[in-house]
Write a structure and sequence with these properties.
Elements: H1 3-6, H2 25-28, E1 33-43, E2 52-62, E3 67-72, E4 83-89, E5 109-112, E6 115-122, H3 124-132, H4 147-157, H5 162-174, H6 184-190, E7 194-203, E8 209-218, E9 223-228, E10 241-246, E11 278-280, E12 285-291, H7 293-302, H8 333-341, H9 352-358, E13 362-368, E14 380-386, E15 391-397
Antiparallel strand pairs: 1-2, 1-6, 2-3, 3-4, 5-6, 7-8, 7-12, 8-9, 9-10, 11-12, 13-14, 14-15
Length: 402
């Protein structure tokens, strides 16, 4: 060993037994911070609107080295410096010593450098830690509001009259400001969300009858369209679009000229489209009878409304068919039916697959003629059945010297 020649004392290598069984306080409480919310009252001089101002603060207490720092949340248009109020260090008490976390509680007042702060609340981790350490905290309180905050709240709640708002918007656009798009938020939130209903219109025109349509309501811009449901063999020329996509007013304002009336039209909203209700689409009474699955779920989630479909009876179809005439004896029965089903005669189609499969299959049977004549009793016949086209052939076996 080279250490014995240097004269330095030798020691055994460190093992696991040299590590402390209990970690130190700074390691045990590393990254553990207690948070308290409070405020202090600041006097305001030479101001007729307010005599004092409430300034809210947040207190952070670090358990690893028992230091604190105070920060002030930023308030819009406050006019005073905000941010870090006191840097992190051990806060001294007025009577000596430093503040410990056991000195902090909701409802208590602490004095730091001549300024009195009152603690009103804390976060969930702080309450859990203090309770586990045997020091439960008092219930949280609320911080009071000053005249400045109440005045700013009333100003923000105040709405400008329409003429002043339009003038303000005009000057903002004139000074190269952006014009606010009030419909952008609704478009981004409800784009491609469509409520689809099946509706019924009792048409009183010459064609008459009840006609079914599809009503699509677009949530992005509160417009709707009405499409016709095509029915096969209805005898009516279908028109694909009854109403193009547009805002539909509940009661249209009828005037001789545009902008002649100052009354604004009231348009249909999703809450007006309930299954079973009758809505007017430009003087047409439209009955909502059902909706799709997405529309049903949307009303249940957003409006807490259950859309129950109506039971609508389908119109009875009294179709009269021309009776099939009897077989006239010309050609086969299939040839005769060709003249019944079509105006232009067409030859009947043969089952090519059946002919290809059973063309060589022929069933033959021996037969005798049933007759009252004695000479015909000995006549013999052969009946052949062709499986390819279901035809029958009968021929007689000739006897000699008959």
């Amino acid at each position: 060993n080279l250490l014995r020649h240097t004269g330095l004392p030798s020691r055994p290598p460190l093992g696991t037994s040299s590590l402390p069984r209990k970690p130190p306080a700074w390691l045990q409480n590393d990254k553990k911070v207690l948070q308290f919310n409070g405020y202090f009252q600041e006097h305001v001089v030479e101001n007729p609107d307010e005599n004092f101002r409430i300034r809210k603060c947040v207190f952070y207490y670090y358990l690893d080295d028992h230091t604190m720092y105070i920060t002030e949340p930023r308030v819009e248009n406050a006019g005073i410096p905000q941010g870090v109020f006191l840097k992190r260090h051990a806060f001294p008490k007025p009577d000596g010593g430093v503040y410990h976390w056991t000195d902090l509680d909701a409802g208590k007042e602490i004095e730091v450098y001549g300024r009195v702060y009152k603690l009103v609340s804390y976060d969930a981790f702080t309450a859990e830690y203090c309770a586990s350490a045997g020091h439960p905290l008092s219930p949280c309180e609320g911080a009071p509001d000053d005249n400045f905050k109440m005045t700013r709240k009333m100003i923000n709640m105040k709405q400008n009259p329409p003429d002043l708002a339009e003038t303000k918007e005009y000057f903002e656009v004139k000074l190269k400001g952006g014009k606010p798009n009030k419909k952008l938020a609704s478009y981004l939130e409800n784009d491609r969300k469509v409520l689809s209903f099946r509706v019924l219109w009792d048409d009183t025109s010459y064609d008459g009858g009840e006609k079914q349509y599809i009503l699509n309501y677009f949530l992005s811009d509160q417009t709707m369209e009405v499409k016709e449901v095509r029915v096969a063999n209805s005898g009516i020329d279908d028109f694909p679009m009854l109403l193009k996509r547009m805002k539909v007013p509940k009661e249209p304002v009828l005037t001789h000229y545009p902008s002649m009336s100052l009354r604004k039209e009231d348009y249909y909203l999703p809450t007006d489209l309930i299954v079973g209700n009758v809505i007017k689409v430009y003087s047409r009474d439209i009955l909502l009878i059902s909706c799709d699955a997405y529309t049903t779920q949307w009303f249940k989630d957003n409006e807490n409304i259950d859309q129950v479909p109506l039971k609508v009876k389908n119109p009875r179809k009294n179709l009269k068919y021309q009776p099939v005439p009897k077989y006239n004896g010309f050609g086969t029965e299939e040839d005769s039916m060709a003249s019944v089903n079509a105006l232009i005669l067409k030859p009947p189609k043969k089952d090519e697959q059946k002919i290809f499969k059973n063309d060589m299959h022929i069933l033959r049977f021996d037969a005798r003629l049933v007759s009252t004549e004695p000479d015909d009793e000995n006549r013999k016949f052969i009946i052949a059945f062709y499986c390819g086209d279901d035809t029958i052939q009968v021929y007689e076996v000739c006897d000699r010297n008959s």
